[in-house]
Each structure stands twice: as C-alpha cells, then as structure tokens.
Specification:
Blueprint: H1 9-21, H2 26-45, E1 50-54, H3 58-72, E2 77-81, H4 88-96, E3 101-103, E4 113-117, H5 129-141, E5 144-148, E6 170-174, H6 187-190, E7 192-196, E8 206-208, E9 228-232, H7 237-249, E10 254-258, E11 271-273, E12 283-288, H8 296-303, E13 309-311, H9 314-319, E14 330-332, H10 336-343, H11 350-361, E15 364-367, E16 373-375, E17 381-383, H12 396-409, H13 414-432, H14 438-450
Parallel strand pairs: 1-2, 1-4, 2-3, 4-5, 5-6, 6-7, 8-17, 9-10, 9-12, 10-11, 12-13, 13-14, 14-15
Antiparallel strand pairs: 15-16, 16-17
Helix pairs in contact: 2-3, 2-4, 3-4, 7-12, 7-14, 12-13, 13-14
The structure holds ligand LP7C6HRI and potassium ion (K).
The site of potassium ion has 11 residues, from strand 4 and strand 5.
Length: about 450
C-alpha cells in the first residue's frame, strides 16, 4: 500500500532504537530532525522573526537544533524554555545553540512565527496551566504557528487532547506520521502535516492512505472481467441506487441490482432484475445493506454467496454477531453507531478498536467518521487523509460502499480496495465542492479517478 508511514509511540521508539543499534546515534537523529524543522520553517514562513518554545525532552532538543540552523541562515530567532533539558541529546543540542534562552513567561513578547517544541510523543498529561496559557497567548499573537512533531497537548497515539490546543498551520513530523495527525479531535489542530525523513526504517503496516494503484484495462477484457457488482435492494431503493451509480462510475464493467420493484431514475446501463442468483460465478462483488431496511433475509441471501462482499448500513445492523463474517471475504463500512451495535464497546483508541473488530470478524473494517480508518485482520491499518467536512451528508456512505464494491470487482484485495475507496471518496468530495449532494459525489468519481 502506498502512503506515508504512521507509527504509534511504542513502534516509533522501537524504530528509533533500531536506528541507534544500527550505528546512528540519537544526536544524529535529533540533528536531522532539527535541521528538517528549520528547513520547513524557512520554506513555509520565510525569514520572519521566529520564536521557538522548547520543552525539557527531545522535542525541545529538536527545537534547539532548529534554532541553531535558523540563526545560521540569518533568521531572527528567539528561544524560550520551560525547563532545562533533561536528556543527554537535548542537553547537547542546548549547549550547541549559542543564542540566549529566555524563560517562558508573561513578559515574553510574541513573534511573527511561533514554533512549538514543548512536547512531542513523550507527553503523558496536561500541560501545566502557566505553560498552556503562554502557548495559547503566543500562538494567538503569532501570524504562523508551527508544531515540532506534534502540537503540545495532543496524545500521540489516540488523538485525544489533554486540553484545548491552538490550531497550527503546519506540523513537521519526524520519521513517520503519528496516529494523532490523522485522528480526531487532534487532526485539525495539526494543520498541514509535513513528513521529514530522518533515516529511520518505519515499515508499512500503518499508513496514511495514498492514491491507489488500480489494475490497468485488459485489452481483451469484457464486461464481466472488468468486474460485476451485484447489488441487493431493500426497502429504500434510493440508497442502493446511489451505491450502484458509484460502483458504475468507479469502473465496474457491469452493475446490476436485484430488486422486487423498478427503481426510477437509474442510468440505463445499470441493469435491474427481479431474481438473485447468488451462485453466479461471474459476480465480482456483492453489495448489500445500503437502504436494506428491516429485511434481514436480504443479508442472509448475500451471505450464502461465495463471492466477496461489501456490507453497508442496515446490513451491518442485521449481522447480530461479528463471527457471521468469518470466511465471507467481506468489507464492512460502519459509522460509530453501527460499529457499536455490532461490536459493543471495545477498549482502546479508535485504531485499536478498528483492528480488534477486524480480527474478531475476519472482515476488513472501514470505520467511518471525520477520521475514517481501514483495518485488516492481519494488523494493517490505513488512515484517511483529511477529507472535506461537507462529506457528512445523506447518501455519501452509500457512495463509499459502491466505490468499494467496484474496487473489489475490479480485482483489488479487500484491504487495498477499501483504502482505494476511501481515497477516491475523499478526492471526489473535494472535486464536487461544498454544496454537493451524494448524487454529485457519485458523478465526481471519474474526475477523482483522473487524478491517478
Ligand atoms: N522518535 C525519534 O526517532 C526521534 C524523536 N525525536 C523527538 O523526540 C520527541 C520525543 O521526545 P521525548 O523526550 O521522548 O518526549 P517529549 O520531549 O515529548 O517529552 C519530554 C518529557 O517530558 C515529560 N512530560 C510529559 N508530559 C509532561 C507535562 N505535561 N508536563 C511536564 N513534563 C511532561 C515526560 O517525562 C517526557 O518524557 C519526538 O516527539 C521528536 O520530536 C528526536 O529528536 C529525533 C528522533
Ligand atoms: K511540539
């Protein structure tokens, strides 16, 4: 899967340790991090007066390194510290910075650019009241706010906030993104997230979902080899119609709907039939649940098929037991309410919950929300890149389910198909614009595909 790596704190520490064991000392990693931070500040803010706030740990150490680089390049720099450095690497970085270091307090004047190097992945509790007040005051007075690795006040692994955090314009992350960069409520506070390579091997189990690689068209192919999506209608045909439209616009070769009554307004290319042969081996993916309503027999019928499935909305509610999904090669697309209905209240943060749900059910889980996650039973996780808030409207979930079904029918494995659908859905939302309705979103999918 393409995409920027994401590491939780423990995995980040292990990756850092592996680099150290491999002969790269922590001071070198910090030097790379601080130099990258300085570079990002200059590129983003230009040579404006810059105030760096430094904490006691290695996040503060990165700040001292950045201050030295900025000063060396002629940027007017001031540094304020909340405490003396406590780690050897941060002490060395502090010693190598030749400028003055002021104590952080009420008398400190703001600067055009404020850089928060107070705490990163090591933050475990709320900031002291005074420190928080200064961060907010100096942040509000600055024209640009830049965070070193993470905004201080954010829990790196869960995205929870220990207290109110100023909104940053940019966050410069080191080695890998952290879950908080892509989880609510922290995500919007991070602003644009830039990733600096500091020479750490991160692996790719958890990634920010990037543009998908879709299989090319087979010149000898026909509509079935391009992928048949078989949709099962229920009580509210509008929802399955949207999903079917989205599947067709996502490049499925053939989309058909089993429905007991004709659905108005569908493109003629989408076939409507009043039978449902679930043993048809040409089916690339079954799509069930969107608008199904309280007809659980529709779900039961889908589960008799050997074909891969996307199970959405009412279909998730009708499952009852996650174990029913075992061996189904299914993608499920719950929002928070549907997730809880199926799995109960799982412990841990959103990533841990999504992964546990995926392990229990054996299904790929698209856990929807402003911070959509894709989880695979084998432990892989895809974090959605930021998507527009206007996607939160009726029918957009049906469109997502339709895209996912098309990706499966086109031959992608379940996890890759789910990630591809999340990426395309977000980009189609951007292209459709703030006044879109779900129909416009489905119509924008070809433009999103054109971005690839
Ligand atoms: N991971 C890497 O490869 C590299 C990371 N770098 C940077 O290091 C920080 C993480 O540094 P660390 O020293 O572990 O933690 P922090 O600086 O975030 O915190 C320091 C320390 O402070 C204590 N503490 C926690 N919460 C509070 C609080 N609310 N008030 C006061 N003190 C608190 C706690 O003991 C922490 O350990 C990472 O984000 C990167 O910026 C390296 O520089 C390069 C390699
Ligand atoms: K920080």
């Amino acid at each position: 899967m393409s995409g920027r790596p994401i590491l939780a704190t423990q995995a980040m520490r292990a990756a850092e340790q592996a680099a150290i064991d491999g002969g790269t000392p922590i001071e070198t990693l910090m030097e790379r991090a601080g130099a990258a931070l300085a570079e990002a500040i200059i590129r983003y803010a230009g040579p404006q007066p810059t105030l760096l706030l430094c904490g006691p740990g290695n996040n503060g150490g990165d700040g001292y390194v950045a201050a030295r680089h900025l000063a060396g390049r002629g940027v007017p720099v001031r540094v304020a510290a909340i405490a003396e450095p406590t780690t050897d690497a941060a002490k060395a970085a502090r010693a190598a910075y030749e400028g003055a270091v002021e104590p952080l307090g009420d008398s400190m004047a703001p600067a055009k650019v404020m850089v928060d190097c107070l705490f990163g992945t090591g933050l475990k509790r709320p900031l002291d009241g005074d420190v928080h007040a200064q961060l907010v005051r100096l942040g509000e007075a600055a024209g640009l706010r830049i965070a070193c690795d993470l905004p201080s006040g954010v829990d790196s692994d869960s995205g929870a906030l220990f207290g109110p955090v100023p909104n940053f314009d940019m966050t410069v992350a080191f080695g890998a993104l952290k879950p908080a960069h892509r989880l609510m409520p922290a995500m919007p506070a991070c602003g644009r997230v830039v990733l600096a390579d500091i020479g750490i091997d991160t692996g790719t189990d958890w990634v920010e979902i990037g543009p998908p690689q879709l299989p090319g068209l087979d010149p000898a192919g026909h509509k079935y080899t391009r992928g048949l999506v078989h949709c099962l209608a229920g009580k509210m045909p509008g929802a399955i119609a949207l999903a079917a439209m989205a599947a067709a616009r996502s490049g499925a070769g053939y989309v058909r709907i089993s429905t007991s009554r004709p659905i108005d307004g569908l493109p003629a290319a989408i076939a409507q039939i009043d039978t449902a042969d679930m043993s048809d081996e040409r089916i690339g993916c079954i799509l069930v649940g969107s608008g199904m309503g309280d007809i659980p027999q529709v779900l039961t019928l889908a589960l008799t098929s050997k074909a891969p499935k996307v199970i959405d909305a009412d279909g998730i509610g009708a499952l009852g037991e996650p174990e029913r999904l075992k061996g189904q090669n299914a993608i499920i697309t719950p929002h928070a309410g549907e997730f809880e209905t199926l799995f109960g209240t799982l412990p841990g943060n959103k990533v841990e919950q999504a992964l546990e749900a995926s392990r229990r059910s054996g299904a790929v889980v698209i856990y929807k929300g402003p911070d959509t996650l894709v989880a695979s039973p084998d432990g892989r996780a895809g974090f959605a890149p930021p998507a527009p808030a206007w996607l939160a409207s009726a029918g957009t979930g049906d469109v997502l389910a339709g895209i996912a079904a098309a990706m499966v029918a086109r031959g992608l494995p379940a996890f890759e198909a789910a990630c591809a659908s999340v990426w395309l859905h977000g980009r189609a939302g951007e292209l459709a614009g703030p006044h879109m309705v779900a129909d416009d979103l489905a119509a924008a999918i070809p433009s999103a595909l054109d971005l690839l």
